[in-house]
Amino acid sequence: MSRLEVLCATMHQTDFSKIEEMNIKSDVVFANQSDHEGYDEITFDGYRARMVTTSLRGVGKNRNIALLYADSEIGLLADDDVRYADNYVETVCGAFNEIPDADVIIFNIYSTSEHIDRKPTQIKKRGRLNKLSRNPFGGPRISFRISSVKKANLWFTLLFGGGCLFSSGEDSLWLRNALHKGLKIYKYPKTIGSVSMEESSWFNGFDEKLYYGKGAYYKASSPVLFLLWILYFAFRTRKNSDLDFGKRLLWMRNGAEGYKSLISYDEWKNSVGESKSL
Questions:
Q1: Sign (positive or negative) of CA dihedral 58, 156, 29, 95
Q2: 75-115, pLDDT tens digit by residue?
Q3: What is the separation, in whole angstroms, between the first and last Cα of the chain?
Q4: I want to staple 33 with a disulfide (CB 3.0 to 4.6 A). Which of 11, 99, 135, 184 is the partner?
Q5: Residue 112 has what pLDDT?
Q6: What 3-state class would DSSP assign to 114?
């Protein structure tokens, strides 16, 4: 059994050139969204790379496909715009050796696009997450013991994320579900790589659609504390959005209603408009 395996969601790949682009120095599974079905496997530098190609759309489905094929001790989630540091394997494996009871460990990753609003939150000291913790951590920062995740029957939602009904939040929701299933999650203040955030399939600023999606996410992840979370997020992003405080709350309330009825932002906008009331 290999010690670490990168689990990468990607699209329209025709070869294994992402290995060099991403500076991968371990085993890797690519869950490749394309217009056909296929399986390819190669070895490189003593490691194994597998490409599982399907026509299934949605980041959650493809993260689940990569997880289905994972057979190493430790999995490291990835998107295909990540570039790993040369020592990422040693960093990740070393952290699990240092924290033997950890099921999941979250690392730092930095953006190569420092001028935009979506700078990754940086971890400054080691600590353990709890059910009330904020989870501003995207997938490429998340590593886990594959046996712990499979024993907990923990999978990615099909409702949230790129290509899904609600365009973001799948990784944070996965972490929430992991906590509810009793997995031990730690933050670790070391950097494993960089990511480009110049382009995004879902982020176009702090607009109505973003708040709608956040409302859906908070309703799914924290139904009891939903109101507190949307108040907190509306206040925290007051300098980022052109929407006033009331409109930010309104669109998160709309998103919560949309989540209950499984209505996308576009469907809500076309059928309901803004909203009846707060």
A1: positive
A2: 999 999 999 999 999 999 999 999 999 999 999 998 876 54
A3: 54
A4: 11
A5: 75
A6: coil
Residue type, 75: G
pTM for this prediction = 0.88
More confident residue, 4 or 117: 4
Say how far apart CA 14 and CA 16 lie, in whole Å.
7
Token pair listed for 206: 């702090």
Q: Which residue has the tokens 């496909």?
A: 65
Quote the distance between the C-alpha of residue 45 and its chain's center: 29
Q: Please, what's the b/e burial string for 190-218 (b: 16 or more CB within 10 A of its CB; e: otherwise)?
A: bbbbbbebeeeebbeebebbbbbbbbbbb
Strand partners, 10: 32
Residue 241 · residue 189 · CB < 8 Å:
no
Domains and CATH numbers, the chain: 4-195 (3.90.550.10), 208-268 (no CATH)
How many CB atoms are closer than 10 A to CB 31? 25
How far apart, in whole angstroms, are the C-alpha atoms of residue 49 and residue 54? 16
